[in-house]
Structure prediction request, 348 residues.
Amino acid sequence: MDQRAALTARRYYLDMLRKNSPTASRLAHFGESVFTRMSRLAVAHKAVNLGQGFPNFDGPDFVKNAGKAAIDAGFGQYARAFGLPELNRAIAARFHKDSGIEVNPETEITVTSGATEAIAAVMLGLVEPGEEVILVEPFYDCYPAAVSMAGGVLRSIRMHSPDFAFPIDELRKAVTPKTRLILINSPHNPTGRVLSDQELAQIAQVAIDNDCLVVSDEVYEHIYFERKHKSISTVPGMRERTIVLSSLGKTFSLTGWKVGWAIAPEQFTQAIRSAHQFLTFSTATPLQRAAVDALKAPKKYFTQLRSDYAARRDAMLSMLRNAGFNPFIPEGSYFVLAKHEPFYLEPG
Prediction:
């Protein structure tokens, strides 16, 4: 197809999209979020929704009380765009305690309205139209939408059952001179994989060899079981090319608070902030103040969190097996994937 014919075909495609939906073409093909769809179906059928991404228990009282106190004390106005100074310091301190890496809270941390906004700010701030972003399937459904909104080109590779090992050979083949970012997620949603030291080292080598950045979504960083989570930013040569994303919601069972952050070298932080300021500008002030107390939680809080989730994981695995499913044993996060072949019916 020559260039003129290709342009005509694209215009026809866009015209058809616009006739059927007013949504811009960069988002029209994504349709409704799977979380919205499944939540609606769960309500309609009075079913238990196991895929929503939040627990069935409340966050800790010491964090909620800190939020209430901040509201009562009158902290109801805008916060500084990239985060309250005390929260940025608390994030830096927690990251240093967990990873051993020191970051500058003033120049390398951006507080966002949840990790989802951080993902959007990263894509909008760092990806030029036409540059490629590599995603690893299965993935959180906001990833490709954020790439598309930024004008990036999605290239995907896939983790395969039964072990969901990271597809390093696929990654090597997927990288091109146009690759800007490689986005990884560990502990992984939805497989529950926690990437091994070897896998992280292999990913790092690909990024270094091809001068790519790695975006590491670590929102489940404190929910791991047999294998401890390790940030790829700790791999030699990766501190200067890794953007770490995390949030308050998963670790403290307060997903509706939408307090997240991005940790990145200064030059990339500037780009992230340039987008963030035009997305939400700042995150709820009283919730940021409560997040300071949350991140100062003692070690026993995180130990108990993992113990509680391990018990829930084992109970869910047992129930699924008893029902005839064949579940994959998650190493982290709070999701379980299970094969359903015993219930599959051939068409016809």
